């Protein structure tokens, strides 16, 4: 498992603790993997991916209560299929439309008008999602990301300014159960507090996540530890888009 700087396997004997520490240091807890589909995405990350938290918890406690870690590609698929149908039904009921699917709905939403975007956000935010066996919150995290991706696809993702402006020139989608933001050239978004556009996007994503977590996502579990882990996992998802702001003196906080 261990390799040197040239990528060659390290052989020989090591003390148990030395090997353990080197093994943990070599493992990339932030990489995205989906071995069932042969997909791997490596990125340099400073934080442990939230899904790792759930996997560790359910591996440790699973043998006691029979809990099972649901792979990300399954929760992503289920949330995508169910939430998009639910959103279409919500719009049909609220607006009196007869959209057959999500693609049809996209043709009906006139995202160029601010009042239309605001109403569309209210309709989507009226969804209530409850996982009756929440575990570590994997389904809720997938639902959180999917709702934001839905808003982006409909063209109604907008900032929280007094006169809300639409997030343009950037695509927000779910890939390997993670939010991926890219510009028109396909370049990945990276938060830069010195950039007005980047700051606006970061604030928008943070506020969207906070609003959805507080008002749309609910979970129940027999194991109180599961509920706490779920809360922690959702907070980690929120903090991925934490941002700096300037205080009264102009200092960045």
UniProtKB/TrEMBL annotation:
<dbReference type="GO" id="GO:0009007">
    <property type="term" value="F:site-specific DNA-methyltransferase (adenine-specific) activity"/>
</dbReference>
<dbReference type="InterPro" id="IPR056716">
    <property type="entry name" value="DUF7814"/>
</dbReference>
<dbReference type="Pfam" id="PF25120">
    <property type="entry name" value="DUF7814"/>
</dbReference>
<keyword id="KW-0489">Methyltransferase</keyword>
<dbReference type="InterPro" id="IPR046816">
    <property type="entry name" value="MmeI_Mtase"/>
</dbReference>
<feature type="domain" description="MmeI-like DNA-methyltransferase">
    <location>
        <begin position="121"/>
        <end position="248"/>
    </location>
</feature>
<feature type="domain" description="DUF7814">
    <location>
        <begin position="1"/>
        <end position="48"/>
    </location>
</feature>
<dbReference type="Pfam" id="PF20473">
    <property type="entry name" value="MmeI_Mtase"/>
</dbReference>
<dbReference type="InterPro" id="IPR029063">
    <property type="entry name" value="SAM-dependent_MTases_sf"/>
</dbReference>
<keyword id="KW-0808">Transferase</keyword>
<dbReference type="InterPro" id="IPR050953">
    <property type="entry name" value="N4_N6_ade-DNA_methylase"/>
</dbReference>
<dbReference type="GO" id="GO:0032259">
    <property type="term" value="P:methylation"/>
</dbReference>
<protein>
    <recommendedName>
        <fullName>site-specific DNA-methyltransferase (adenine-specific)</fullName>
        <ecNumber>2.1.1.72</ecNumber>
    </recommendedName>
</protein>
């Amino acid at each position: 498992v261990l390799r040197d700087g040239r990528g060659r396997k390290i052989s020989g004997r090591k003390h148990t603790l030395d090997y353990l520490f080197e093994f943990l240091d070599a493992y990339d807890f932030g990489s995205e993997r989906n071995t069932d589909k042969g997909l791997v995405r490596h990125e340099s990350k400073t934080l442990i991916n939230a899904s790792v938290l759930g996997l560790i918890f359910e591996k440790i406690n699973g043998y006691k209560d029979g809990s099972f870690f649901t792979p990300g590609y399954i929760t992503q698929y289920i949330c995508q299929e169910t939430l998009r149908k639910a959103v279409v039904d919500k719009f049909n009921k609220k607006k009196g439309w007869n959209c057959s699917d999500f693609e049809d709905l996209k043709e009906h939403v006139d995202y160029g008008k601010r009042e239309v975007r605001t109403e569309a956000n209210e309709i989507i935010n009226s969804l209530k999602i409850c996982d009756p066996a929440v575990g570590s919150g994997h389904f809720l995290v997938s639902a959180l990301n999917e709702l934001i991706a839905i808003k982006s696809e409909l063209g109604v993702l907008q900032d929280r300014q007094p006169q809300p402006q639409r997030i343009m020139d950037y695509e927000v989608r779910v890939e390997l159960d993670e939010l991926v933001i890219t510009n028109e050239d396909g370049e990945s978004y990276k938060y830069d507090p010195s950039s007005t556009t980047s700051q606006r996007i970061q604030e928008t994503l943070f506020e969207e996540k906070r609003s959805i977590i507080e008002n749309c996502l609910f979970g129940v579990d027999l194991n109180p530890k599961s509920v706490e882990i779920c809360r922690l996992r959702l907070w980690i998802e929120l903090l991925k888009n934490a941002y700096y702001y300037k205080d009264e003196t102009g200092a960045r906080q």
